[in-house]
Design a protein that fits this description.
The chain has six helices and eleven strands. By secondary structure, it is an alpha+beta fold. The protein has a four-stranded antiparallel beta sheet. The protein has a three-stranded mixed beta sheet with strand order 4-3-9, with no helix packed on it. It has a two-stranded antiparallel sheet with strand order 1-11. It is globular.
């Protein structure tokens, strides 16, 4: 519920600052998201070679682990550290945007999230994508752009087909290109929301009160 509240708040801020990406009322230039982030899909780790968790194991990130705004490691598989030669590029770093490419839309939304800090070594599996922003300040802007209706419109999922995103579709997705100052400002707001979201999840405050206060400050230009 805390994540949903934060998402709804940031969606409102995003639309206020940049406008609807579908109609682009502010007339921003559009560019492929691949110009703002390095994009790859994961490695085809063979399931027959999965191992039990131990000090000699790394964690693998699959579509089942990537949910709407958070990771679920209840069904985790592991890989031996001894078999990681030439796989450095698939190591996930803090701030990477992770997107499930198969069945990406579920009832709670798009299966995409940002990899948090202080995690154990985790590697990207085939059919999961990683977007690594070229600048730290792009992270929240790209994440919110991917979660917008324009991305769903771009991918055109239907009720009669299994939703599936191809690497080419992802790389060709066009995002608005506002000024760096505006992107930085949005990142600052998102950072404050994330900080308060962590407090909500830890049970140290009441989420609705915090977001109400943030809303008032955001839309009066005080953030």
């Amino acid at each position: 519920q805390a994540i949903q509240l934060a998402d709804e708040f940031l969606r409102a801020v995003f639309l206020d600052m940049f406008g609807d990406p579908v109609t682009n009322p502010k007339g921003f230039k559009k560019i492929p998201v691949s110009q703002l982030a390095d994009i790859i899909t994961g490695f085809a780790f063979k399931s027959n070679d999965y191992i039990s968790d131990s000090e000699q194991a790394v964690r693998l990130c699959r579509g089942v682990n990537t949910l709407t705004g958070y990771f679920d490691w209840s069904e985790t598989v592991f890989w031996s550290k001894c078999n990681l030669e030439k796989l450095d590029r698939y190591l996930i770093k803090s701030g990477d945007i992770i997107l499930a490419m198969d069945r990406p839309w579920i009832s709670s939304g798009l299966k995409v999230c940002v990899f948090p800090e202080n995690q154990r070594d985790t590697y990207l599996v085939q059919r999961v994508a990683r977007l690594r922003p070229h600048r730290e300040s792009y992270k929240d802007y790209i994440y919110s752009s991917i979660k917008s209706k324009s991305f769903e419109k771009h991918c055109c999922p239907t009720e009669t087909t299994v939703p599936h995103i191809s690497p080419i579709e992802l790389k060709e997705f066009e995002v608005l290109l506002p000024s760096s100052e505006l992107i930085d400002k949005y990142g600052s707001v998102a950072s404050k929301v994330k900080s308060n979201l962590d407090r909500m999840i830890n049970g140290n405050c009441h989420g609705e009160k915090i977001l109400s206060a943030l809303s008032e400050r955001a839309f009066t230009g005080l953030l």
